Every structure is written in structure tokens, then in C-alpha cells.
Amino acid sequence: MILVAVLVLGLALDQVSKLLVLKSLPLGSQIPLVSGLFNLVHVHNKGAAFGLLGGLSVEFTRLFFFATTSLVLGVVGYLWYRLPQQNWQAELGYSLIMAGALGNLIDRVRLGEVVDFLDLYWGRYHWPAFNVADSLVCLGAGWLVWVILTEEKSCHASDPV
């Protein structure tokens, strides 16, 4: 049940936030929100993370990202399906990853690129702009790492000495 709720809420938050950016901010604009740390921007990313593959044709990137995202969604869906009953922690992680992957996939199919608008920086160190979908994937992956590490600890704690 967590999968569906988190997936729908995450996907809705991602798509609504991107729609607001598309309607409210001209492409290339920037609004400082926290001086020296955080801006709201409007940029489009034709490539992968950090603009990788951005110089390739829209048709190729659309096909490439559709195929790779579909593969990732298939693998994550299979792992979720194989989860033991009552493992809500792992289910939450998989749900977040799937919501983020679907959010960016929708952009790529609809627009041929991803809308990014969150801009973090510290002095001259600047993180590439990202969006809610990217955040969901990272949160889900980080959550799964935490779940694996804590499950591993509890397994070792119960081992006889």
C-alpha cells in the first residue's frame, strides 16, 4: 500500500512543481531564496545527471532514457514484488525511487528533456540544478542503504558469539 501512496504523491509533487516552474519562471531565470545557498531557477536538462549525454540528439536521448528508465523501473518493481511481507522500510525506498524515475521519464517523453529548478550552492561551489524527481530517487536510494545497513547490524547482533 505504501508503494501506491508514495508513488502517486511523489509523482504529483514532482509534476505540479515542474508545471509551476514552466508557467511562472522564464527559461534561464533565477530567484534567490536563501542568499549564498539556494536559488529557484528554470533550466532544462537534455542529458543525464549533471548534463551527461546532453549533446546527443533529442530522438536518441528520448529513446535511450525511455529504455534505461523502463529497465530500472522493471528491476525495482521486481525487487519490490519479491519483498517479504511487512517490510515497509524497503517498500518505502522502492516507492520513492519509482516515483522519481517516473517523474523524469514523463518529462523526457513529453518534452524531450527534464525541467530542473532547485539550485544549491555554497560560495563558489555549485551543485547542478535538480528537481523533485531527482530528490526522490536520491532519498529512496539513501533510505534503502540505511535499511540494508540496519538490517545487517541486527542480523549480526543476534549471531552467537
Q: Which class best fits the helix and strand makeup?
A: alpha+beta
In sequence order, what are the helices and strands, one letter per element?
Answer: HEEHHEEH
Question: Helix count, per DSSP?
Answer: 4
Tell me the fraction of residues in β-strands, as a range. 5-15%
> Mean pLDDT across all residues, rounded?
87
Number of strands: 4
Kindly state the percentage of residues in helix.
55-70%
Based on Cα principal axes, name the global outline. Answer: globular
Unreliable residue stretches = none
Indicate the radius of gyration in whole angstroms.
Answer: 18 Å
Largest sheet: 4 strands, antiparallel
Count of structural domains:
1
How are strands sequenced across the largest beta sheet?
1-2-3-4
CA distance, first residue to last residue: 39 Å
Describe this structure in words.
Helix 3 runs antiparallel to helix 4. The chain is globular, with a radius of gyration of 18 Å. The chain has one domain. With 161 residues, it is of the alpha+beta class. A four-stranded antiparallel beta sheet has the order 1-2-3-4. The protein starts with a helix and ends with a helix. 60% of the residues lie in helices and 15% in strands.
Summarize the structure.
The chain is an alpha+beta fold.
Keywords:
161 residues, 60% helix
What order do the helices and strands come in, and which of them pair?
Blueprint: H1 2-24, E1 30-34, E2 38-45, H2 58-81, H3 88-111, E3 114-122, E4 125-126, H4 132-157
Helix pairs in contact: 1-3, 2-3, 3-4
